[in-house]
Design goal:
The protein is of the alpha/beta class and 260 residues long. It contains nine helices and ten strands. The strands form two sheets. The protein has a five-stranded mixed β-sheet with strand order 2-1-3-10-4. Strands 7-6-8-5-9 form a five-stranded mixed β-sheet. The longest helix is centred in the N-terminal third of the chain and has 33 residues.
Length: 260
């Protein structure tokens, strides 16, 4: 009788212990669920330098594939124009500039992160009909030349190069973004333009590139940041993180950008 009573007590204690373990499991699961990252949704508005058109378009597609239902809308233009639009109230979630100066001009932004660097290169039409040999040809009045306007990052970089070489450029055209300068070369409207090496790579079926040592005097750093008044802050943060991820770096490196 005593033995049966002891067995009954032990069985009751074991049952209580098992019940206690069962209660702990849902509690742990609930705690884990409460710390999950918010789901990204809606549209992410990205303002990006014109020289990022190809790479960011690809990154946008990859980001959408990783976040079904999310859309990324881009506004590509010269960095100075984009900074002005943002300061005037244009709704933007992310700003990626081709130079720190234009990022600094934006008042309401998060902490910028430099994510790539880019170097200038001379672009000429296929076959180099203007017989361009180097950067000093940009001072030749007989050559048809296109460069970016001084307020645009590629234009500011060009001015640094011209100063380093000791020449006064004689441009026939001042463009508001690097893609416009590149287009003139591809159409054969100019003998040469000073653009980024990534632009030459992106249009290699229409243009040729000529490297020059003085380009090392004006390497552009590209910063990216979320905007303080971002309509979609979660989407903005997620997109910036994607650009900085290994996947983002792979796309940018393949396009010719250098690591920061």
């Amino acid at each position: 009788m005593v033995r049966r009573t002891a067995f009954a007590v032990l069985a009751a204690v074991a049952a209580l212990a098992l019940a206690g373990c069962g209660d702990d499991t849902p509690a742990a699961s609930s705690s884990s669920g409460s710390s999950a990252t918010p789901t990204v949704s809606g549209t992410v508005e990205v303002f990006a330098a014109a020289s990022l058109t190809g790479t960011f378009t690809q990154l946008g597609k990859d980001f959408e594939a990783a976040h079904p239902g999310v859309k990324v809308h881009f506004n590509f233009a010269g960095s100075s124009a984009l900074a002005k639009q943002i300061n005037e109230g244009a709704p933007a979630d992310v700003f990626a500039s081709a130079a720190p100066k234009n990022m600094d001009d934006v008042k309401d932004k998060g902490t910028p992160t430099t994510f790539v660097k880019n170097t200038l290169e001379i672009a000429v039409p296929k076959g180099n009909p203007g017989r361009i040999t180097g950067i000093k040809d940009f001072a030749d009045k007989d050559k048809k030349i296109a460069i970016c306007a001084a307020q645009v990052p590629c234009g500011a970089a060009a001015e640094k190069v011209f100063k380093a070489v000791g020449i006064t450029a004689q441009p026939d055209s001042l463009e508001q973004d690097v893609k416009a300068a590149l287009t003139k070369v591809g159409l054969g409207e100019v003998d040469a333009a000073l653009v980024y090496k990534t632009d030459v790579l992106s249009a290699k079926d229409k243009v040729e590139g000529i490297e020059f040592p003085e380009s090392a005097k004006a390497v552009n750093e590209y910063p990216i940041a979320t905007l303080s008044e971002a309509p979609n802050p979660d989407g903005a943060k997620a997109f910036v993180e994607y650009v900085l991820s290994d996947n983002g770096k792979a796309v940018l490196t393949a396009a010719g950008f250098d690591a920061p």
